[in-house]
Amino acid sequence: MNGVNFHFLNVGHGDCTIIHWPARTAGEKHMDERIAMVDLYHDTNREDYEDVIQYYKSNFQKSNGYPKPIWRLICTHPHQDHICGLKHLFDESGISIVNFWDVDNQFEPEDFEGHATHKEDWMKYQDVNSGDSGGRTLINPSRWDVRQFWDEDKITILSPSKEMIDDAHSPKQDGTKRKPHDIEIDDISFSLLVEFNSTKVLLGGDGKEKAWNDIYENCKSSITGCHVLKAAHHGHQSGFHEDAVKIMNPQYIIFSNSKEEDENNGAYDDYRRILPNAKILKTWRDGTIIVDCDFDGGIEITNSSGQSLI
């Protein structure tokens, strides 16, 4: 690996992105190797999708064979397709987690239908947020917040803003109080910009029109001229914001989704209309996608077998 690697795992209708920063120097300053995992999802009914834990252990090992620690586990928002597998990761995987990022929210699911482990994963999510973090640092950042290590790793929080968080929890238009499952959690999911020297990679989160209006109005200079875009809301039409996509103008666009969801809800035609020369990659079709950003601004994209995708 020459620079920062982004692993967009093929997990079906869910998300898991692993970011690997190498040990490096900036002038006289030394920065340690760090790994972030952004969301996780494991569909136990589909063997053709990645097992997130096994993938991590196979690709991020110490010299003694033990897994490297996850420096920051980032939960963009606690919908089931972003937290399934959380209990197994925390309690059974043997992988150390140093910091846990979570958006400040009071959301609760209406039910636990769907993924088989949703209830136990939700209970683990609640435990971590209630202070039972096992010595890990719990962080609830919002737009423009900065700390030493994510400043070193050039992570910019584009969304949510504190105002968007307040708005998502505010009463409905008719004045009635929102129930926990009515909180607009998608629109306060983390959208993150990661820069490495001259390269920009934007992880779009699950924000829809309201969130992207806010990002477009307040973060134009940050999002202008991206190289790689993980399309918002799994590449759905609901996450497509034409004006933002135009100024981002990415060379590569990644959809993290299942074939069924992509065919029913995907915004491929919209992205292609605005950016006819961009390369669009899809995890369900191309498998796990690995983006290697080198120190000189070069980008290589391969699948998990090492075959080039560009």
What does this structure look like?
This protein is α/β, with parallel strands linked by helices and 310 residues long. It has one domain (4-301): Metallo-beta-lactamase, Chain A (4-Layer Sandwich), CATH 3.60.15.10. The protein has helices at 52-59, 80-83, 86-91, 118-129, 148-152, 162-169, 209-218, 220-223, 242-248, 259-265, 268-274, 283-286, and strands at 4-8, 17-21, 24-26, 29-31, 34-38, 70-75, 97-102, 137-139, 155-159, 191-196, 199-203, 228-230, 252-255, 279-282, 289-293, 299-303. Strands 8-7-6-5-2-1-15-16 form an 8-stranded mixed beta sheet, with no helix packed on it. A 6-stranded mixed beta sheet has the order 9-10-11-12-13-14. Strands 3-4 form a two-stranded antiparallel sheet. Helix 9 links the parallel strand 12 (228-230) and strand 13 (252-255). It is globular, with a radius of gyration of 18 Å.
Give the structure's gist in a few sentences.
The protein contains twelve helices and 16 strands.
Classify the fold: give the CATH topology: Metallo-beta-lactamase, Chain A
User: Tell me, what is the CATH class?
Assistant: Alpha Beta
Say which CATH homologous superfamily is assigned.
Ribonuclease Z/Hydroxyacylglutathione hydrolase-like
Major sheet: order of its strands? Answer: 8-7-6-5-2-1-15-16
Structural class, by secondary structure, is alpha/beta
Output the number of helix runs. 12
Averaged pLDDT = 93
Low-confidence stretches are none
Count of DSSP strands = 16
Query: Compute the gyration radius: what is it?
Result: 18 Å
Topology order in helix (H) and strand (E) letters: EEEEEHEHHEHEHEHEEHHEHEHHEHEE
Oligomer: single chain
Q: Specify the biggest β-sheet.
A: 8 strands, mixed
- Tell me the strand percentage band: 15-25%
Number of domains: 1
**Overall geometry:** globular
Helical coverage, percent range: 25-40%
Distance between the termini: 18 Å
CATH architecture assignment name: 4-Layer Sandwich
